[in-house]
Specification:
Layout: H1 2-32, H2 34-47, H3 76-79, H4 92-99, E1 104-110, E2 116-121, E3 130-135, E4 138-144, H5 152-173, H6 175-185, E5 190-195, E6 198-206, E7 209-215
Antiparallel strand pairs: 1-2, 2-3, 3-4, 4-7, 5-6, 6-7
Helix pairs in contact: 5-6
Length: 224
C-alpha cells in the first residue's frame, strides 16, 4: 500500500515538472523571437481599430503646372464719358471710320448665316484681329478677346478693340449699346434681343473671340 502511494506521488511530481518546463520553453521561444511576438500583438491591435489613410497630394506626372496670368480689365466706366455721334446700321463708311483705317478687304466673305458678305480688317494678319463683316442682312463686329496669359501687348490691343466696339455700339444703340458691350465683356451671352432699337442676333465674348451680330431688319418692339 505504501509502495503504491509512493508511486502515485512520484508520477504527480514528474507531471508537474513537465508542465513547468513546458511553460519555460514557451517563454524562452517568445524571448528568442521578439519580432513574431510583436507581429502577433500588432495584428491583435489592428483587429480592434479602423484603418485611417492620409490623403496625399497627387503630383503632375510630367511636372507641368497650369499657367496663370493677370485677367484683362476693361475700363468701361471711363469709356461712357466720351461723347458720340449717333449712326444708323447702314452708314457703313462712318462705321468703318470709328474702327479706324481698313488694312484689307475681302469681298468674297460670308456673314453670320453664311450669306455673301464683305469683310473689312483693321489689323495686320499677324496681329490680334479687329473686323467688320457687312452683308445685306447683318452687320457684324468681331475682335480678339485676350486671355489672362497673353502678352501685355496683346492685352492692350484687345482692350483698345473693345473700346472702339463700345463706342460704335453707343453710336448705333445709345447707352444701352454700351451696356451691351460691357455685359459681353463680363461673360454674358445675348441672343435675339432688341437693344436701343436695334435687333441683336448674337452677342458674346468667349474662346479668344468677341462677336456682335446686328440684324439690319426692322427692330422688334419687345425685349424678348
Amino acid at each position: 500500500m505504501l509502495n503504491n502511494n509512493l508511486q502515485t506521488l512520484m508520477v504527480s511530481m514528474i507531471m508537474a515538472v513537465g508542465v513547468t518546463l513546458s511553460g519555460c520553453d514557451s517563454t524562452k521561444e517568445d524571448a528568442q523571437n521578439p519580432e513574431a511576438s510583436a507581429a502577433s500583438t500588432s495584428e491583435q491591435s489592428a483587429a480592434n481599430t479602423s484603418t485611417q489613410t492620409t490623403p496625399t497630394k497627387t503630383a503632375d506626372l510630367d511636372g507641368a503646372t497650369a499657367q496663370q496670368g493677370i485677367p484683362v480689365k476693361y475700363e468701361v466706366a471711363s469709356w461712357s464719358a466720351a461723347p458720340v455721334d449717333p449712326l444708323t446700321v447702314d452708314a457703313l463708311d462712318d462705321i468703318k471710320s470709328t474702327f479706324g483705317k481698313v488694312v484689307s478687304t475681302d469681298e468674297n466673305s460670308l456673314d453670320y448665316a453664311s450669306n455673301s458678305a464683305s469683310k473689312y480688317r483693321f489689323m495686320d494678319t499677324d496681329a490680334p484681329y479687329l473686323d467688320l463683316i457687312d452683308s445685306e442682312k447683318y452687320l457684324e463686329l468681331g475682335w480678339y478677346y485676350a486671355n489672362p496669359t497673353d502678352s501685355k501687348k496683346e492685352k492692350e490691343l484687345s482692350q483698345n478693340h473693345a473700346k472702339k466696339s463700345y463706342m460704335l455700339a453707343r453710336q448705333l444703340m445709345g447707352d444701352e449699346g454700351g451696356k451691351l458691350i460691357a455685359d459681353m465683356l463680363g461673360g454674358q451671352i445675348i441672343k435675339n434681343k432688341t437693344v436701343g432699337g436695334q435687333k441683336i442676333e448674337l452677342a458674346k465674348c468667349e474662346f479668344y473671340s468677341c462677336m456682335l451680330v446686328l440684324n439690319k431688319a426692322d427692330a422688334q418692339t419687345d425685349n424678348s
